[in-house]
Amino acid sequence: MKNARVWITLSGGLASGLLAGYLALVYVSEEPAPLKAEELKGTQIVVAGRDLATGTILTREDLEIIDWPSGNLPDGFFSQPGEVVGRGVIGEVRRNEPLLDEKLALKEAGGGLPITIPAGYRAVSVEVDEVIGVAGFTLPGTLVDVLATVMPGTNRSQTMTRIILQKIRVLTADQSYQTDPEGDPVLVTVVTLLVKPQEAETLTLAATEGKIQLALRNTLDVDSVSTMGMRINTLVQVPQKPTPQEGQNAPARPPEDTVVESYKGGSRTLVKFNNKGG
Predict the structure, then answer these.
(1) Residue spans per domain, the chain
(2) 3-class secondary structure, 237
(3) Helix/strand/coil (H/E/C) assignment for every residue in 92-108
(4) Which of 125, 132, 192, 233 is in Cβ range 3.0-4.6 Å of 171 for a Cys bridge?
(5) CA 178, CA 185: separation in Å to the nearest integer?
């Protein structure tokens, strides 16, 4: 009986092994199914031949044509270079990235900064120094708050600083040389900000009537804050004189001199004594 059980066990294992080997042989010997013709077919589309900066006017040298799977074509693609030559790039495009209609300006719009300004916005440039420009960190695409310091009239104690604009995007930050009153060259940084028309008025007035300062902020920080501003007389508190009521509570100070009045023979005499011992 024991030998019979061993034989049955060995027979079952051998059969399983033979079946697995047979299935593996059939799988290997089968030829892979050919891909369908439509899966191999591609469509030629226009892509960037190099990295393209915002404002670039496209030329034939900037373009390449590659095959793209027909089943996965991006919306707004172009198949002929002539369809995009002469159009401006309104957003950065990387090499081999398809050129899409949504990333290109109309041909008659040209290139440069104007095509990067969305509808309803304006580009306003202001001169800044190294400090106002946050030490060179106001790069295109960063967000800043604009602070204005204004002194109304001639009363310096009323000078006030307050945040007047928030979450303003920097379009450009360029440096150029200008001449000072003595004729010497001076390096000046001009920052161009993207603002709405009313914000453009606020910024221009602040830059004309006062002094502006840029405050760099995290591009992920989109929350607005509300402040009361800061006046110079609040920044440097002046000690206040005690009120009459406060004076009553203060300890009495003896007079510096004591005057003694006396009479002798009908004549009046005043004698003054210094309490400090003088």
Answers:
(1) 40-115, 118-235
(2) coil
(3) CECCCCECCHHHECCHH
(4) 192
(5) 5
Extract the tokens encoding 234.
């609040």
CA 126/CA 144 separation, integer angstroms: 13
124, 118, 116, 122: which is closest to 146 by C-alpha? 124
Indicate the CATH number for domain 40-115: 3.90.1210.10
Q: What is the pLDDT of residues 203-219, one digit of tens each?
A: 999 999 988 888 988 88
Give me 223's structure tokens.
Answer: 């929350």
SS3 at position 73: coil
Of the candidates 44, 90, 89, the residue with the CA atom closest to the CA atom of residue 62 = 89
Cα–Cα distance for residue pair 17/3, rounded to 1 Å:
21
Q: What is the pLDDT of residues 13-57, one digit of tens each?
A: 555 565 666 565 555 455 555 555 555 568 999 999 999 988 889
Identify the bridge partners of residue 55 per DSSP, sorted by sequence position. Answer: none
First vs last C-alpha separation in the chain: 138
CA distance 47 to 44: 10
| 182 CA to centre of own chain | 36
Partners of 104 in beta bridges: 89
pTM recorded for the entire structure: 0.53
Strand partners, 273: 258
